[in-house]
Amino acid sequence: MLWAAAELTVTVGVVVLLLVVHQVWWTNRQAAAAAQEQVQALERSWERDPAPDPPQVPEPAATGPVAVPAPAPVPVPGPAATAAGPEAGRAAPAPARDRAYAVLRIPRLGLVVPVAQGIDKRAVLDKGYVGQYPGTAGPGERGNFALAGHRNTHGEPFRYVNRLRAGDELIVDMRGRRYTYVVGKILSETTERDTGVIAPVPRSLVKPDQGYGEPGAYITLTTCTPEYSSKYRLVVWGTLKPS
User: Is the model more confident about 106 or about 73?
Assistant: First the structure.
């Protein structure tokens, strides 16, 4: 009886280990590879038709509350929608949710990753994509272009964003357009309910001395911290570099 119990314990341990390996290693490989294929597909389509797309109408803010994801959204008050950009008169509809429409490049990290609308875990983040918070400004627009990404598993595009420093470039490519942001401030830890970090003028509600006080064109990167935990959020802010 004791021998049978020992065998069962070993078997269960092996199964759990295999599940962990699948989650941490295999899903990373699958998502990262699929994300790179999506980047290549976008770039090929841009080469065939390089004419810039009209400015987008930002996706409306969700009717329900939205949180800084863990990576899945948690019900808390969501950010207000940003004002339309200067070319709003000929704006095109926002891209479909979960469909990649841009590419984020972070030279310091060697990161190249597709950007999609929405922060849904299964439809966007688990694909290894970076997701744009609903209702936030589009790339290059006045307001806050706010993004979320996994730090661990499923491609983990934001695994090393903690290595970013002030002055590093965050480049966003779209069809016929490139926007370069410069990292300005980093909030190493805040709560998942700190929606101020993705507001049009980003400022922490938990640590009010962290963030910005004037309107501008911002980018925000959010991810979980510490690694392999979803207890807190790490935030990186940048401002649009004049063209």
Answer: 106
Position 68 scores a pLDDT of 64
User: CATH assignment of 3-240?
Assistant: 2.40.260.10
**Residue among 151, 154, 159, 233 flagged as catalytic:** 233
Of 151, 154, 159, 224, the active-site residue reads 224
Residue in 29, 122, 150, 151 annotated catalytic: 150
Cα–Cα nearest to 144, from 66, 211, 220: 220
Residues 86-132 have pLDDT tens digits of 333 344 555 666 689 999 999 999 999 999 999 999 999 999 999 99
- Residue 22 bears catalytic tag: no
Q: Which residues make Cβ contacts (< 8 Å) with residue 2, sequence separation at least 6? A: none
Q: If you search the block for the tokens 């910005």, which residue do you land on?
A: 212
For residue 71, say if its preceding peptide bond is cis, omega within 30 degrees of 0.
Answer: yes
Structure tokens at 203: 């400022």
pTM: 0.78
Query: Exposure string (b/e) for 181-216, b if CB count within 10 Å is 16 or more?
Result: bebbbbbeebbbebbbbbbbebbbbeeeebbbeeee
Domain extent listing, the chain: 3-240
**Structural tokens at position 183:** 């990292």
154 is catalytic: no
Active site includes 233? yes
